[in-house]
Amino acid sequence: MRFFIVDDDEAVRSSLAQLIEDEELGIVAGEAEDGAELTASYLNDLHIDILCIDLLMPERDGLETIRAIKDEFHGKYLMLSQVETKELIGQAYTLGVEYYVTKPINRVEVLSVLHLMIERLHLEHSIENIQHSLKSVMQFQQRGQTKTKQRGKSLAEAGQFLLAELGIVGEKGSKDLLDMILFTDQYLALHADQHDSFPSLKIIFTGITEDKLSEPYTSADIAREAKAAEQRVRRAINQSLKHIASLGLTDFSHPTFENYASKFFDFTIVRKKMSELTKEMSGREEHTRINVKKFVQVLYYEAKRIFMED
């Protein structure tokens, strides 16, 4: 996350910047003592995610500044003020200010609000990325099953790239995940006329198992092998979660962490795993509930997007 702080009190700017740095919430990309010279284009050039701005300042106050930049700047606002009148707070909310803390700065309150804002931003980015992937898939014109087979290698390569990014390219379940991508692509091509036709996990695991088994085989054989594949996939996804969480602990702004953490996992789960790794639990790992379906869906749509952009 990238922050910008606007406050006429140097002590407030310093303490807030120190808090963000100490808690490793992100980077303070800039500061200003007044909003008079602040523009949306300047903030956008700095890629600011969260603007922390004082309500009352001598030349141009927080409300006037937000009013001037709100149409072009699409980050989040954190309003800082000693004033708590309903009228001013109401004006702030009408301008899109959703988060507000009072002075003097209370460390616990500010941390709580900033964590909430960061989680909200990660969620919004995740939704935007998934929507982009879905849009890319919907725009794609199916060219028949023969063409799908010709595309298979490239789609598999896109999947291989993603697995490498997620830190599981060498895991046993990685081959199953690649098979799941290709099976899902063929399944959606055959069911393109059906609304919301993404196959269930049961259909996917059964499908990739039938492709692997040599005839003759029984339903019991399929069930047994599908269960084994599911266990391999779950272990691989757990390893990916651990890899992503480790990157986040090393550098919260690491591009792989920023790109994939909230896209493939619920961010609360990532934070829990980061906490577990920090505590170094002497080899004892707590059970972390993984949303396998979300992971598989995002993996497929991301692989599809990468392949289509090549």
UniProtKB/TrEMBL annotation:
Keyword Phosphoprotein recorded: yes
Entries under Gene3D superfamilies matching the protein: 3.40.50.2300
All copies of domain Response regulatory, residue ranges: 2-118
Domain of life: Bacteria
Post-translational modification 4-aspartylphosphate, affected residues: D54
GO biological process: phosphorelay signal transduction system
Keywords attached to this entry: Phosphoprotein
Pfam family, one: Response_reg
PROSITE patterns: RESPONSE_REGULATORY (PS50110)
Record has Phosphoprotein as a keyword: yes
Endpoints of the signal sequence: none
InterPro entries: CheY-like_superfamily, Sig_transdc_resp-reg_receiver, ST_Response_Regulator, YcbB
PANTHER family (UniProt xref): TRANSCRIPTIONAL REGULATORY PROTEIN GLNL, TWO-COMPONENT RESPONSE REGULATOR
Protein name, entry field: Putative transcriptional regulatory protein pdtaR
Gene: pdtaR
